[in-house]
Each structure stands twice: as structure tokens, then as C-alpha cells.
Amino acid sequence: MKKLFVLTVLIFLFFTSCNSQNINPKDYFPLDIGREWHYQITLNESETVLGFREIFWPIGDGDVAFCYNTTQYFYGKIGETYSLVLKVKEKAEKQGERFQWPNGVRIEVLEDELNLFRGTEEIFWATTGGIAGQRFMAQQVITYPGYDSPTQGYQEGYSTNLIFFFDEPYTSIGMGEDPVDRLFFIGPDPYYDDGMGFVRTVYLEEDTLLTEAIRFKKGKVLDKLVQVVDEKTTMEWNLIKTY
Q: Which letter, b or e, does each residue of 180-192 get, where b requires 16 or more Cβ atoms within 10 Å of its Cβ?
């Protein structure tokens, strides 16, 4: 039933037969220094909003890390709106202690009324590919303070997740052999000029399914997000302005 619901979301929200060959994906993910995004987040059918991150905590001096699949809970009031403001603070040649993608920036949280980024230390966005046939991808890296580590290393924790990529329509990407977190590239949105559609699916604890219908807008990055948890719409993001 849940898989059928996901398929319905994919088709209903972003069904398209558009040709995407002439699109430059870099236009959908501008990262110029000083750019701000002002979002209005509305809670719909639930006072609880869920989030999911795979957080890795290094052990000792090696590359071994302990992974926590973390379900996060954020609380508000149904019908209320909350503000989230993000800003590109500066270029970042390294994204935390472990990543070094060439096109990286540090993201500053100017306002976060739902505390979606609580407990984090730094946030980075970085893009790769887009030339010579390489798949264009945008990653989000979040670091966490070492004093929160569940291991004895007290080293910085980190999470990475794919937030945008460009490929053939209906391609999906998930990390690992049996990923619980997948991002589906749906393709150009025929009902919205210069829109690009994605759907994210995450299987949480107790077989709870989190689905996010996501739209990117040319020149603006993320433009709209609708989260559904077990067929109940929990929240909706709308981009109010960017500059």
C-alpha cells in the first residue's frame, strides 16, 4: 500500500514527458556568495514534523565511523507558519574535516523558527560534475560537535545527503546497498515554468514512510517542498523571496 502511494505521488505531482536534454542543471543551483533564501513553512495535518539524517561518528584515528540512523522530531501548531532563512556565507574548499569538493560553500542559518537545524555545528552545500558527461550533483554536508559523540573519540560527527542531481527522468539515487533514503529525479515540471521535480522517500522506524515532493526553480534552488508521512501531509515549504 505504501509503495503504491509513493508511485501515486510520483505520477500525480510530477508526471512529465518533457525533453530535458537542453537544460543546464547548474542554473538550478546558484551558490553566489551572499545569496539568501526566505522560506515560509506551514504545518498542515500534524503538529509533528519528521526529519531523517544518517549521522556518522568517527572512531579512533582511522576512517571507521559509527552510523546512527536518526529520526528527528520538530513541533509546532497546525495552520501556523514558521520562518526559515538561509544564506551563502562564504566559499568552503573543505566541507568539515572529511570532505573536499571543489565547488563548496558554507551555509549560514539566519532564522529557524522550527529548529530544523538544531544541534548542528556547520552546514555546507557542494556541487560536482556537470561537464564532459558527468552527472551534476549537489550534496549537503552537516557537521555535529564532538561533545555529542556517542563514541569515545569525541570527534566531529557528520551527515551527507544528496539534495539535487540531473539525469534521465525517473532515475533514483540512494546511498549504500539497501538505502532507506532515496531521491527520485522526476524531470522538468510541465505545469510550472523552469521547474524541476524530485521526490524523496525515507523508510523510518516502525515502517513509517516519509515522502517529500520537491520542486527546484531555475535561478532559485529549492522553491517548494511538501512532506507527507504515512499519507498525512505534515508540512509545506514555500520560497517567499531570494536575492
A: bbbbbbbbbbeee
Query: What confidence tens digit (pLDDT) does each residue in 148-158 have?
Result: 887 766 788 99
Domain span at residue 26 reads 2-242
β-pairing, 122-128 vs 157-165, is unpaired
**Beta strands in the chain, from DSSP E residues, in sequence order:** 36-43, 48-58, 65-75, 81-91, 103-112, 122-128, 137-144, 157-165, 171-174, 181-189, 195-203, 209-217, 221-229, 232-242
Give 216-228 as a DSSP string.
EETTTEEEEEEEE
From 19-28, 85-94, 123-132, 228-237, the region with the lowest mean pLDDT: 19-28
97-130 b/e (C-beta count within 10 Å ≥ 16 → b): ebbebebbbbbeeeebebebeeebebbbbbbbbb
Domain count, the chain: 1
What pLDDT is stored for residue 191 in this prediction?
Answer: 75
Phi/psi at 29 (5° precision): -140, 60
Tens-digit pLDDT profile for residues 190-213: 777 889 999 999 988 777 889 999
| pTM, full prediction | 0.87
Residue 88, φ and ψ in degrees, nearest 5: -80, 110
User: Rounded to the nearest 5°, which phi and psi values hold at 148?
Assistant: -90, 0
